[in-house]
Target: Aspartate-semialdehyde dehydrogenase
Amino acid sequence: MSEKLRVGILGATGMVGQRFIALLENHPWFHVALVAASPRSAGKTYEQAVEGRWKMDTPIPADVAKLVLKNVNEVEAVASEVDFVFSAVDMSKDQIREIEEAYAKTETPVVSNNSAHRWTPDVPMVVPEINPEHFAVIKYQKERLGTRRGFIAVKPNCSIQSYAPVLSAWKKFEPTEAVVSTYQAISGAGKNFKDWPEMMGNIIPFISGEEEKSEKEPLRIWGHVDDIKKCIVPSEDMKITSQCIRVPVLYGHTATVFVNFRQNPTRDQLIEAMESFRGLPQELALPSAPKQFIQYLTEDNRPQVALDVNYERGFGVSVGRLREDSIFDWKFVGLSHNTVRGAAGGAVLCAELLTAQKYITAK
Model:
């Protein structure tokens, strides 16, 4: 790409906004040209606004530190300075739906980390390796919005990233039902241990809204574009039930999964299907794409957060302990990085694919 696209980060001061900024440092296609946040932060430089609150392991990129934060609510002004935006705003769902549509109507594509539009029928919710064909629904969304280039695309919830890719790799074996328990890091709530000291040595067996997302979002990902209804129709081929638990880990969502199949795959077939699973990001060699999406670890005590959460720079999924079960057919343990693959990184990979497919272009 001869000239980098100008990117705006909406909600730039929060944890996911910070992760976007860290991931986009020296990105070959995208340049962070603008940062926006709530009115109380507007007018400050970025480094002033996040002083004492920067949660990433790497320093604030120098070219972003001096940027003056814009008011995220001044949609026209923000949109005029960028080619597209990443959205990580902290608002109510109704407010998020409203503001993301407002940006799209300025002919500014929105790639969102938020959940507000995940069930809007003509908004694609995409894991680029799994369902890139869902971007085809964007043409119907543009018809509804009355736009030429403006649209909204979203990535799914972080809680499904450690098991939905695995079940997708096993699609040919026809999985029919799964029982999933997720053990989710505190950064999924936008916090670290300094913010949330009561999580030290603690487990909380409830995360609001997570179980519904864990059970329903994979079905939408496995659905199809209905050209008559002009929307995404979720799959009905599988049932998932889940429990979601907050655990004292900073980064990394772990899942334990029990699954039944219509077919009768062997252990070797299941492992080969995982390890060979590839998608458009790998075929196109997108900048953030993991070379191998899913790795299988043979040790009995893997995957571990401490050892495996940063596999493929956090863009890959680690799996272990695949074994036959006495009630279900098979069971396994999965692990993914919740703020990279599960949040900002998943959105960056979506934006890269949208750019490669010419949905996102320079204004």
Notes: The CA atoms of residues 89 and 318 lie 29 Å apart. The mean pLDDT is 97. The first helix runs from residue 15 to 24. Residues 160-337 form a domain with the Dihydrodipicolinate Reductase; domain 2 fold (CATH 3.30.360.10).
